[in-house]
Amino acid sequence: MKLYLFMFLLAGSILIGGCEKSLDEDAKTFIAPADFFTNGEQCTQAVNGVYASLNTIYGSPDFWRIVDLGTDLSYTEDANNLVPHEYTFTSGNTGTGSVWSSAYTAIKNANMVIARVSQAPIDEQLRGRLVGEAKFLRALYYFILSNFWGDVPVWTDELDVDAVSQLARTPLVEVREQIMKDLREAAETLPLSYGTSDVGRATKGAALTLLAKVYLYNKDWTNARQTALQVVQSDQYSLLPSYADVFDVRNRFKNNAESIFEVQFLRDAATATNIKTHQQTSYYMPARDPGLSTYAGVDFGSYVIDGWSVCRPTIKLVKMFEPNDQRKDVVLGYGYNGQTFTKWPRPDHPWFGPKFWDLEANAQASGKNLYILRYVDVLLILAEAYNEEGNTSESMKWLNEVRKRAELSELASLSQEGLREEIMKERAIEFVGEFQRRWDLVRWDKLVDAIKSVADDNPIGAANIKPFHNYYPISAEEIIKNPNLTQNPGY
Amino acid sequence: MKKQTFECYFLLMLLLVLAVPTFAQQQASIKGVVVDTAGRQLEGVIVTVQLNENQIVKNTTTDKQGLFQVNDLQNETSYTLNFRLVGYTPFTQEVLTNRGSISSIYIKLSPKETVLDEVVLIGYGTSKRKDLTGSVSTISTEKLADLPATRIDQMLQGRAAGVYVKSTNGAPGSPTTIRVRGSRSISATNEPIYVIDGIVDPSGTNLNSINPADIESIDILKDASTTAIYGSRAANGVVLVTTKKGKAGRNEFRFSTNQGISQLAKRPEMMNAREFAEFINEARIFGKQPALYPNVDSVINIVGGEGTDWVDAVTRNAPFSSYDLSASGGTGGDHGYTYYLSGNVLNQQGIIENTDFKRYQGRLNFTKNLSSKVNLGVNLNISRENKKLSSMNLGSNTGWSSSYVFLAPTIPIYKADGSYETFNPIWYTGGHIDNPVAIVNKITNKQLANNIIGNFYLQYEPISGLKLRSSLGINFINQRADYYSPSDMPSKIYNNIMYGSASSDIYNTTSLINENTANYTKSFGDHHLDFLLGTSYQSRDIDRLYASGARLTNDITQYNNLGITEQENRGIASNLDENTIISFLGRINYDYQNRYYFTFTGRRDGASNFAAGKKWGFFPSGAVKWRISNESFFENAKIRNTISDLSLRVSYGLSGNQGIANYQSLASLSANSNAYIFGGTQALGYTQGNVGNDGLTWETTSQLDAGLDFEFFNGRVNFTADYYRMVSKDLLLTVQIPSQTGYGSRIVNLGKSLNEGFDFSVNGDVIRNRNFTWNALINISTNRQEVTDIGPLTRVSLDAGIGYGVLTSYLEKGVPIGANYGVEYAGTWKNQEEIDAELSKPSGERTLVSTANLYRPGGPRYVDYNRDGVLNAVDYHYLAPANPKLFGGFGSTFTYKRATFDFFFQFSQGHKMFNAMEFFAGMGSSLTNQYKYMADRWSVNNPTSDIPAVESRDNIPGDRLLHDASILRLKSAQLSYNLKGLLLKELVKDMKVFVSGTNLFLLTGYNGFDPEVNSGGSSSTIIATDNGNYPNSRTITFGLNMTF
Fold it and tell me: Which of A146, B79, B148, B764 could join B717 in a cystine, given CB atoms 3.0 to 4.6 angstroms apart?
């Protein structure tokens, strides 16, 4: 009996012994980071992954509702967008949706790429470019975070979950130091331009423009001016003759001469294929008439675009335009194809105009690219920096460049204060809906005044707004998960 | 046999022998002694003496010594003696009298088979219930056999103490979710494992392929002593399924059929067209817009006063039919064999149009003795399952724009020209949709599975008591899911993008399991020993290939030729998932004199899906049992007549849970072929995928179980009670981590949970007459569960998938898993003064809050939990458990002559669930139809109403939307009539006709379709959410059952 038992167990243990190795997991469906980053192709693909978050962030209503709504240029009546508009956000309902987590997801990917590509056995020039792209993107993502929340946790190494989970917020000054460090390094290794198949990647010009902008936010006028001048002197960019072309309703001028950095989207209208799309068009289009393909009473032809008209221009914006400003009929919508709208959002209020339309869109899907940095921004940075340095004549020179394109008269003599007002107005008109207004108002410390100035269009917001609203609250959930996070004052 | 008894018996026999000469008389006599199997003399045995079949000559009973004597019998005549005693099998003996003398006989009566004698399956072996040291629920399928069930888990509902079985939805062939003694795990599974004919179901709970009619019995292992033998996967209980085997010498051929109909059992009460039109007008005017229906009557003229009943439009009375054929039999002996062959065709139409479940299944169970020492067997089950699924939105919160619950009754199904109506005037400012009728009629969504489950074993008994057994089990599954949306979907016609889109998703599963066991049993006098040693190796590979094609210009090829779509309109995916588990197991059972029992088991498991170096776990358990009724003091006690058996059991042990996905401990990169656009074309991009975790290992549950087993009146009534307490630690927990890491969560071993409760079950014959019997059974279970540790986090939100940021479930220390959270609803603001008074209070003194935009008369208000004047997630607190505190079932079987009536009720109590539909349809949202009760909403004309006014949707989980989910359900009822011997006497051995029904009656306060649903499916944590489920149905069938 013992013999049988023994033999039986022996057979069993041989079987099991041979299989012991099969407990090792040998995944064949995915690649481990340690097995990747072995050639230029793979490193490029990993950098591509860092770009993907641009679509996530800029393509999300969460983002544009917290930077363009709740300003003096647009208002909403849509129930789902009221929180940032009416300044009712709290730590429990921050109104900021996924922006915080999407930006950190992007930073996490950028950190890994920067750490691994820096060590990868690839061509030196390619490595410099790829690390530069990732650093530019990381700087941009921290720029977004710091503009909404002020102090934010900063980390730049490959993820150590336990350490990063406990990080406290870094003071805004240091966050911007990190952003500027990345941008300076990126500007050194990034090329001025790319071949056609790589159009859309970050360039030296993009890094310098963003850097100039951060200097401007820091009120470091000299560096802002010098950096912006480098962009001008690079001779890569020029203004398109017409503002309407910059925002062509048929997307014919993507990545044009004026574009320094834009988020790439793609929709193939010919085959009705949505490849990478956003819904901004639906948010800004005039309301579609129930059951019809007309918008505010005007037939747009065979287009089938959802028009929700979530974002609408304030009367303040309408009144900002000087007579003859060529941008007025691009920014504001009074009609289409010679027909005037028959319905209006509110008495005497127009809709948002063709700047935001995409006639190639279908339903909610638009493939229109979204600008992050335009050459106009460089010109207006120069105008602002010169003016703040006291050089009004040089400032006006750059400002007039912008006015000329809008077919407005050139400004001749203005005080520093008067010019400052003009520049602020110019930025409002030029960049409305381009994810700038709230950040500009905050850095000028004019957010509260601005909201109170549109009490007619946003009475609740005007009543609620307080100075502490300059920054959004950190989500209570995040503070529960990481008690080292402190809340912004006022929440 | 006890020594004392043997001596008594010897003395008695001596007495009898000595007595023989003293009765030398003319007439003959018969005398004797009647004893039980243990040799104890039996008093009160009725002895009937018959001369031939009909003529009873004498009657007598045995005395205290078990003696009887019958005198005055004819000489040299053959008499038939019948011996009867309650609780014993009647016995008949022929006796030939001697001339003028006394014939002595010795009669041994064996006790009737009772519940305690039934054989119970334990892992890798069997035990008699009376020898069982652990806690096992056994479900006899006898009474369930003729019910229209398609899956065995559906038959378990309410039947076993401590086992809570809940349907997840009512679609034909859809699974249930089972909790054996509560939930303990958070991110790993809480479902028990299934062992079919000894083979650990290699592919998880794939029960659709098994025909309930093939099931002999189901045993559910509940305590650690019985489950530990299944080690790492046993913490959630083990369901052992035994299929029918042939019986040597009993060749049978059986046919049965069930034909019936299913219908929608219950539905929510929504507004009709007129109520809705008035509601939407009020809402529009409130929103400073013109009324949608300025002339309500004109819309009523089109759709009628009730309007379109969307639920009615897509549901139907659905036929159910099933046919079973089986043949079984065999021959005995050293070279004998047994067989059981069966086939089943099932066609269950769903109550939603164009949904169904069809099964074609066959089984072969075969055993063969090669010699007296060697036997082998094979169990093979082959099935093909076809399912048509509903593509329509079933009322989920996020599907408000086109679901059959939410669509306005003022929308007609068809336009005047006969085409489908697409316009939904309340989809914001109006939009075009595919209405539910169009979707159920036009979209193809089907699943097909071919499933082979088989196992082969060889058993060798080299010496008596030692059994060596080796088995090989296989499970091959080919699954294919096809989807097609044709080019002429109404919304596509409207948008003028008339292309078809198709996809196919193909899975292949290959599972292998090899188990080798050695079992040795030996008795040494009063000592009984049973050893088991074994090894197990199990592997499972799942590969998948998915392809899709859009922009199809024809509707003919559908998913059958995806290559005819353009390159950029194709989608493709594939992956491979491999898992291996290696185990060593052992068990020792020992008992002394059937009085003291000890069981020790242990299993060492290695599983591939944990981190390197953390793969192995050891799961030991021990149990003791004291069979008090076998003690001498008990035997002599008077109570022995009432309590015929009494045992006390205690067990303690560890079992594990490894129910998480593969590769979770490994770091990965995830690829996206459409990561970004460069130069106007898509570019492939990689991002960081899973974060590695070097410490990922087993979740362990320790369980204490103490039980009492009573048997009364020799098995007429049985009662079992168990107390259990389970502590689970190192929970596999998907922990929310700060988003600043770039991740929202990761899986770690963290936390503890506790489960405790009582299981009771009683079963007995209340009345037992010749013509009438009444058998009743009841089981009641209690369960209390609590998360006792979730690490540094105070609270973790669980997303029940309701959407719009509505969070109704949290994990928190001291609160049950998956519990309902929210705030107390405090009615509506009645007027502006009330609001102003509340808002003027300083923070800290506030009692009532609303979301910022709903501080208006008629707006919903809530109790301000933290009194800060702001309504947010911080105010959400524990409201009610999602698992019942008390559940079980009760039923009765009445037999009168040939008729049998059986009914079974199932109940659960003490749990609540959110009706997700009400976040729109109970809050006055102008985007959807409303519950009928919203007609009584607050308005200027109805200023005292506590039902919110129009446009009060706030996405706040208020307890107004949280409903008591307690139920009392008439789960099944059946009336059958036995026609045996009445019809086709020569041909038919047995014949029965019956009518049966399931889900016939439901008592509940819930206002959705049915509280017994779960949108979370078999989710570990989300156990009670109603967010768009296929509704449960009521089924009534007629059947016939014949044995030849």
Answer: B764
